[in-house]
Structures are given as C-alpha cells and as structure tokens.
Specification:
Length: 489
C-alpha cells in the first residue's frame, strides 16, 4: 500500500473557519464495525484496522500523531430560520488524506464530545443514529449516489440521556469535505469580504479547480455547485430517498449526501411522504426536495454576491441567471434516471408523461416504490406479471403498461436486454425502515449486532438478491410501518 498521505488544509485556514479542539475520551470503547474496503482506498495503515490502536483513535481516546483535530464553523437556515452560528457541535475533523484515487477526503469523528459550537449539547451521538448512518450511507454508495461514507463505528461505554438513557457511539465518516452552504453563510454574515474571498478560493482550489481559470471564478463555482446539487437531488428522487432535514447547514458544497439524520427510503409511494418527526409541515417531503434544494442554492448565491461583481445589480443578475438553470438540470437528470428505471436507454421530453402517469398510478394504488420498479422488469414480456400484482386498479395499470410496451418496442432492443438493464438500475434491496429500526432495537436492548451485520453485507450488492436475503427486500407489513424517524442530536 502506498504511503498514507495526510494534510490539514482546512485547519491551516485557522479562525474563523475552524477551531482547534480535542475529542473527549470515552469510558470503555468497543468496536461495532470497521470498513476494510474503505480503509484500503484511503491507504489507512493496517495498524488501525480493528486493532486496539485503531479503537483508541476512532473513539477519541487517543489523538494520532497524524491528526490535527478541528471543529468546522458554519451557520444555516434551519427549517427556513437563519441561525448565524451552528458549527460542528459534536464532530471533529481529524485529517485530510489523499486516497488511492488521488482525491482528498476528510476523516471526521462524529459524536466525539463537546466543541466550541456545541451550544449546550453534550457533543455525543446515541448508538441508533450511528448505526443508521453507517447502514444508509454505505447503501447509498453501493447504489451509486454521491455520499459521505462510514469508516468505523465504536460503542463508547457511556450512556446518553435523550428521551430515555441510550448507549453512546461514535462514527468515523469520510467525505470529500464537510463544507456546506452554511459554511459560506457563516463567513458572509460577518461581512468580511476578504475572508469570504479566502474561503471561496479555498473551496475552488479543493473542489472545483477548473473554476480558477474562468473569467468569473466565483460565478463558475456557483454554477458548478448548482449542477452537482441538481444531479444529486435527481438521484435521491429516483430511488425514493428522503433526506429529512435539507437545512442549508446539511447541504454539501461537494454535491455529496451528508448528515444522515431522520432520513428514510419510501415504502408506499407518496410524493408528500415525510418521515422526520420534526418536519411537521412537510417542508422536506420527497416531492419538495428539488424546490428546497433550489431555495438552499439561492441562499448560497446570496453569500457570493460581493464576489460575483462589484456592481450589486449585476451580481444579482448573474446569480439569478445561474439559479434558473437548476430546475432544467434537475429535471433533465431526473428524466434520464427515471427513463432508465422503466427500460428506456435515452428518455426524451415526450416520455415525461409516461413516467408521470406511472408515478400517479403508483400513488393512487399506494404501491411500494422500490418493489414496483424492481418487479417492472418482469412485466416487460408479460404485462399481467411482475409489477401488475401490486396494482389494485388493474384496468389503469393495463392501459399504462400497453403504452409502455409500445414505447419500449421503438428502441428495437431484445426483451432480455431491456430486463437486464432494468435489473441493473432498480435495486432489489434498499435500507428498509422497519429493518433498520429492528437492527437498532436489537443493538440497543440486547447488544445484538447480527441484523445490523446482515443488513450491511446484503446492502453492499443492492442489485442482486439471494434467497437468504429475500426477507430483507420485502416491504413492511402494516404493523411494521415506520412513520417517524429521528435525528441523533
């Protein structure tokens, strides 16, 4: 393995961008999980792989000689209300490493204790949210969605008081960076344009280096982030994923899925579906995610106005024109992804009606989102088979299926080729809410990680379903349905 290459570029920016802070030691750490495949990609020395030395580092009990822990400062709009200072209240960036792909990645402890940004919190994470983030983030990676990843999870040996006493845990997560829209809001709110420029230049160099040579680097930065978010949200939508808390402090500049709190994959399709216990108004429902991403990006554009042009009116015009591209880019990406889900290699604008009508039919019949698309490949040769069994309204299903088959025929592809492409696009396995809840319950009450480990292994190959994992693919029974998920604060 090539040499473990460590850098600390964010820490070197110093105040106000981050603050040095040490993790708080824990009582009796134990390994919960360790990601050997990811450790290999990061060139992490094997002395830290499920060893006592690694346990000490990833529990925060020892600061490795290669670490320089800092808490990142950011602000954010939380459910539309601006909070000028949030920051890493329970997370610490240990280091940035250059991985096998020659890209830079953060190594961050989450749940490592109080920081200067904890705002009265204990800086810890309960076991349940750590297991949820580990499972869902790794599942998203396997599904091809840009995401933070889970390197390690440890039990702390301490108990946390939430609604009830819960075991504490720490997750080590990996990201291209943990810089958010809220990071720019924090600097912009200070009114120091020199600091804003310093930070924007840093982000350009780190994430969008091609922007540096543009006529207006900061406008190109804005358009690059818009494109990344437009594509990311389309991917979320195409797999029925609901982030749950799309506040500006939870939206990554790098276009990765970050901050897995009350997230969930839909069971029965409903565009207004919300799982987060705190989202009582449906702000971040499945169908609202593009609109809210656009809203967040507008807040990002506002922070860049002083850099876009010295003339305020021109800056607004440039930002507005850039933001108008979000809907077009998001809709184009969503159309292509959804087209692939129904067997179309290249969807056109004319296919939007076909896709929309299927979604409306799914909503009216409350069919399971993932199961419908997975079984759809079995309907390619016979529209009375496969997904047909899920629709109580068989007449409208058959009308739609006939139109769909007519469209498939225009491609001139063999039926088995269409089916293979659909099975490689539509996952057989997703992190089912009721299965995650059961895994968390077993871990919390009995210290039993068997279901967690089984889910983690199965979700690494989501497009392949073995007989031994067939139960994990099944939608919940009515009594198993999860209506609320919770963040880990």
């Amino acid at each position: 393995m090539k040499h473990f290459s460590v850098q600390h570029s964010l820490a070197e920016l110093g105040q106000p961008f981050s603050t040095a802070c040490l993790p708080t030691p824990v009582a009796a750490p134990q390994w919960l999980a360790f990601n050997v495949e990811l450790a290999t990609q990061l060139r992490l020395p094997e002395q830290y792989w499920r060893s006592d030395e690694g346990l000490a580092v990833f529990s925060g009990n020892v600061v490795a000689d290669w670490a320089n822990p800092v808490a990142h400062a950011y602000a954010g709009h939380q459910f539309g209300h601006f909070v000028p200072q949030l920051g890493d209240g329970r997370a610490l960036l240990l280091a940035e490493v250059i991985a096998i792909d020659e890209q830079r990645y953060d190594i961050q402890l989450k749940g490592a204790g109080r920081t200067p940004y904890s705002r009265g919190g204990d800086g810890r994470a309960p076991l349940g949210p750590v297991l949820r983030e580990y499972l869902v983030s790794e599942a998203m990676y396997a599904l091809g969605v840009p995401t933070t990843r889970a390197l390690a999870a440890v039990l702390t040996g301490d108990w946390l008081q939430r609604d009830t006493a819960e075991p504490g845990a720490i997750i080590t997560r990996i990201a291209k960076s943990h810089i958010r829209i809220g990071s720019f809001q924090f600097i912009a709110a200070k009114g120091d344009i020199a600091q804003l420029k310093t930070f924007a230049d840093y982000v350009i160099k780190r994430h969008y280096p091609e922007s540096a040579a543009a006529e207006n680097p900061y406008l190109t930065l804005l358009t690059s982030v818009i494109t990344a978010q437009a594509q990311l949200i389309a991917k979320w939508m195409s797999i029925g994923f609901i982030h749950g808390v799309m506040n500006t402090d939870n939206m990554s500049i790098a276009g990765e899925t970050i901050d897995y709190g009350p997230c969930a994959f839909m069971d029965a399709f409903n565009p207004a579906q919300v799982y987060s216990y705190i989202d009582r108004q449906g702000r971040y429902a499945w169908g609202n995610q593009p609109k809210m991403a656009s809203w967040n990006l507008t807040r990002f554009a506002e922070t860049l106005l002083p850099l876009l042009s010295a003339e305020p009116e021109q800056a607004i015009e440039l930002a507005t024109a850039a933001l108008l591209q979000f809907n077009a880019e998001n809709e184009a990406a969503f159309l292509q992804l959804m087209g692939e889900k129904i067997g179309l290699k290249s969807a056109t604008k004319d296919d939007e009606v076909l896709i929309r009508d299927l979604l409306n039919l799914m909503s009216a019949n409350s069919t399971d989102f993932s199961q419908t698309f997975r079984l759809l490949s079995l309907s390619v040769a016979n529209t009375t088979q496969g997904a047909a069994q899920l629709f109580a309204d068989s007449s409208n299903w058959q009308q739609w299926a006939n139109r769909w088959q007519t469209r498939l025929a225009t491609q001139g592809l063999a039926l088995n080729e269409v089916q293979q492409q659909m099975d490689a696009t539509n996952p057989a396995l997703i992190p089912r809410n009721h299965q995650i809840a059961k895994a968390i319950e077993l871990a919390n009450t009995e210290g039993d990680l068997s279901l967690f480990n089984r889910l983690h292994k199965a979700l690494q190959t989501p497009f392949t379903l073995s007989g031994e994992n067939a139960d994990l693919a099944q939608p919940p029974m009515p009594e198993q349905c999860i209506s609320n998920t919770f963040c880990g604060t």
